[in-house]
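User: Hey, my collaborator sent me this sequence without any context and asked if I could get a structure. I don't really work with proteins. Can you help?
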Amino acid sequence: MGHQLLTQVLMMLLIAIVAIVLLRRLRVSALLAYLFTGIISGPAGFNWISQSSIQLTAELGVVLLMFTLGLEFSIGKLWALRRTVFGLGSLQVVLCALTVTVFGLLFINDIGQTIVLGFAVALSSTAIVLKQLNDSGQLAHRHGELAVGVLLFQDIAVVPLLIVIPLLGAATPGEFLPVLLVALMKGMVAFVLVLGIGKWGLPRLFDEVARARSSELFVLCALVVALLTGVATYWLGLSMALGAFLAGMVLGESQYRRQIEADIRPFRDLLMGVFFISIGMLLDLGSLLGFWWQILFITAGLMLLKSLLIIMLLRLAGESLATSLATAAALAQMGEFSFVIIAVGVDAQLLAPQWANLFVVAGVLSMALTPWMMKLLSQHQPLFSAKDLQTALTPTLPPSGAKVLLLGFGRVGQVIASFLKAEGIHYLALDIDPARVTQGRATGEPLFFGDADKQAILQQAGISEVAIIIITFHRHPHIQQLLALCRELAPRSKILVRTSDDRQMTQLKQAGADQVIPEVFEGSLMLVSHVLHHSGVPLSKILRLLENERRNHYPSLHGSMAASADELGFEQLFALPLASNAAAVGLLLSAVPWAELQVQLVSWRRADIEHDASQDTNLQAGDILLLCGIAEHFAQAERWLITGN
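Assistant: No problem. I've predicted the 3D structure and written it out in structure-token form, which is a compact way to encode the shape of the chain:
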């Protein structure tokens, strides 16, 4: 039985993978793939697995979704957009929910069901709208600002809805108000407890976890905090999602917000996929085919209703018709949280599965139509100067005009930052040391906590927009992978890498570094410059010599003539005299397989006269070859040149 269940789950996941890949090629949301997987795997399909068996996993997806929503909750963000959020946003949600509720009573003789459907229709898709606005460069347009403000209020409105909807299903009409008041009091208690304990304890907890420098521990801690606060509010008789939202809101004010969001995102996306699969299991397309005209009617009706309400509100607020139309096109669909509200309503036995199925399909159709509508109605919008909006929406991005991204803010990073600051060059820095980040931010440095190995962190730091990326870590376990990631995300940026020596210069160049700066060689060059200067060599000549060394990868500085035990991994210079019986005597220099021997010929000396390596000649007895390479390769080359083997 256990093997059969495992096989069925694997088949379900395989269907999801194939569906996501195919739909991505068609530029369709992965949500449709998850719903299709649920239909195939559920009672209407092969009946491999029931919805109840994955319900807990699906709920965890909602919990993590609310946790990440709390991370994005910012008083500053709301204040910057307060008129749009609490004015237009609240009117849109309330009027839309009220209209659907009243109109729905003509078809459904149950006010509880129409209320759930009203609020489900009132919500829009934050993920689809923001992605479409960002991809088309319309976040800075006036309709982009208005759409984002409304979406912020909708996201906030989900929190009280998750409290109220279960109560509507559990309480009789006469008991609803007292039960609601009790629930609100419990919510206030949960808010105070999480806020009080979290403000004091969670930052300290994550300080200790961050000092451990273990990414696994950091991820585990974030997951436990989200789930533990969810369980705490569940014990109070409220939803788990509410507790997770409060925990996210507390951590959203900390320096770890970006790292937590980046670490949680894969788990959230995966579990939300399971949630949408569970929604798909509710659907029976065979039975819904008989209601195709009702589905089209609901889809057209909800999109038209939301569009007309938004256009009316914006026109009353004095916005242009073009801006009103573009904003309406962006917000006309149902959203991810709409499905959460529908699922909660079904679970509370407040919403009939038949109506849930119809509105889920209608919601999916409305989401699929959104990109086309936005593109059609927003091509000629006037730009809106949204400097405050950009600051409020994307506090993780570098300051306007940032040119340099520092990965690592130790002593080297701080020295570089001081010179950049003195020259008025804007920069942003990432570091994973919590104490250093705290101290840096206290002094006003644009420094953020984050693991540079994470693609999401680098994208939040605006890596694709900077001109120069400087990797200052003294030691990094996966430096080549980090370089490759930076090069992938910022193909046009110049990447500089600081290293302690030259062991990996070639590999780092191949991985994407434009310039590698070995500390030991740069220190030697500084000493050489002082010696030459005090010896009377002109400064211009010294600068030319230094630049030549850097341009040619420090050819004169690759070590000493003899290797010590701790330098065997370094490239060094070796002098090899050729005796009369050496196998290489008589060979042309160009005939020696230097690449196979993994050494480089720097120069050769004959009769006390040094010749450049480019001067080809037949080797003679008494010639001295100056070779560059590591000790192991030199031993191999010496054996070949002397014995021929």
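In plain terms: The chain is about 60% helix and 10% strand. You can pass these tokens on to your collaborator as they are.
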